[in-house]
Amino acid sequence: MDKAVRTLPWPTYDKGNVFVDDEDLGAPRQALANRLYFRYDYRAYNDTETGRFEAALRRYLGVPHALAVSSGTAAIALGLMSLELEPGALVACPGFTFAATPSAIMLAGGRPLLIECDHNLHFDVADLERKMSPAVRAIVVVHMRGFASDMPAILAVANKWNIPVVEDAVPSLGLVAGGKHTGTFGDAGAFSTQSDKSLNTGEGGFLVCRDATQFAKAVVLSGAYEGRFKRHFAGPPPEICDLDYPLFSFRMDEIRAALAHAEMARLPRRLEILRSNYDYVVDQIADLERISVRQPVIPGSYLGDSLIFRLPHVSNDHVVQVAAALRSEGVDARALASANDPNVRCFWNWRFLFRGKSPAEIRALLPATTQHLSHAIDIPMSPTLTRADCDDLIRAIRKVMQRRASSHADLAPRSADVVETAEAK
Ligand SMILES: Cc1ncc(COP(=O)(O)O)c(C=O)c1O
Questions:
Q1: Where is the active site (predicted)?
Q2: Which domain range does residue 62 map to?
Q3: Which of 266, 289, 322 is the last residue of a domain?
Q4: Which amino acids bring their CB within 6 angstroms of ligand 1?
Q5: CATH number, domain at 378?
């Protein structure tokens, strides 16, 4: 029998392959020993772990305000809530993102308006423009799988309609696009520190903001009661009354803040490894004509923690089979759109948004995104990947593509507009 390229498990965060150094553990241990786990105690803001973490984030991202919170979802919701949109306001967001993005819009009292993604799975700005109306009160942009969205184009639409932009930068901490960190282009940027992200505290997140008053509201909403929001300002705080806002207890605790802050020291190294592994693999499969590797909106605007490629000329069934063949070779590949895998990054699985609609009716809402996702394969590239792991990945992709090409004429390019998709059946 044919021998698999690798038998070792493919390294991913949920198997413990995380970029955490023993040195990083000293700070949370000390925070535990201090027995002061709540961020708002008798200490001065700058003497708390959360305060220090926020200061480091401000420096790193070059933003005036940062707030550590309990999750990326909470950060997106706070970014929107602090804009005080009217209840039920339409908020545009892409159809390719984790289900947490539309969920956060709902948490903030809004209604998601789904926007198409282009063939590179980026927010389709032309579709955004088509769907804009006075009822759309904000845009949530997502830098999905560490690829920057086209921020100048999206901001131009937002400016034309005079509406705010919140960036779901959860998957993209450390990514610089056009000289600026993702998450710092819009009115607010949301990040996560869940284990699969650039900083790993198990769960957690943070929000960055430009405007001091919006930030003050976000701080109160996150659970800073009885004047505690004022501690976040070195000078006079904005004149808001905190009793005007509900308290959602989205605060980050001291132990996680200590860990996240410690991990920031190694973030540049993590980013270097991701980029160098990704570029190496992409270079080594560049000659495979049937594969279209996801392209960035501007050269270099990706992190490299996920390899997404499309097989644009074959049916969804074949894409699913290619992903299965890669898994048999020992690589955790996933066809993004597979009937047997309810992937919550595909909008048709957000049934909570479309009660009463059939999957086919939901897919028909974004036909282009449906088609592009039906061709896509997603492979996680952990920062713990060694060169040998990358070589396995290259060998597995080459082997599967060559084998399928020799046994299936259907892997040869066909006209894109006659592509069958599972959902068309
Ligand atoms: C694009 C995107 N947005 C939001 C989230 C939610 O982040 P969290 O799990 O920290 O709430 C995720 C989680 O992976 C995500 O990928």
A1: 197
A2: 22-266
A3: 266
A4: 71-73, 97-98, 100-101, 142, 144, 168, 170-171, 192, 194, 205
A5: 3.90.1150.10
Same domain, 188 and 302: no
Of 202, 231, 197, which Cα lies nearest the Cα of 216? 231
pLDDT attached to residue 404: 77
- Identify whether residues 206 and 295 lie together within a single domain: no
Catalytic residue flag (residue 15): no
Going by the DSSP 8-state scheme, the letter that residue 362 receives in this structure is H
CA of 397 to the centre of ligand 1 (A): 28
What single DSSP character describes residue 176? E
Ligand 1 centroid to Cα of residue 200, in Å, is 13
Q: Identity (one letter) of the amino acid at 234?
A: A
Q: What is the pLDDT of residues 234-278, one digit of tens each?
A: 999 999 999 999 999 999 999 999 999 999 999 999 999 999 999
| Whole-angstrom distance, CA of residue 188 vs CA of residue 141 | 11
Both tokens of residue 230? Answer: 């004022």
Does 379 reside within a domain? yes
Which residue owns the Cα nearest ligand 1 atom 8?
A: 72
Based on the domain organization, do 243 and 98 belong to the same domain? yes
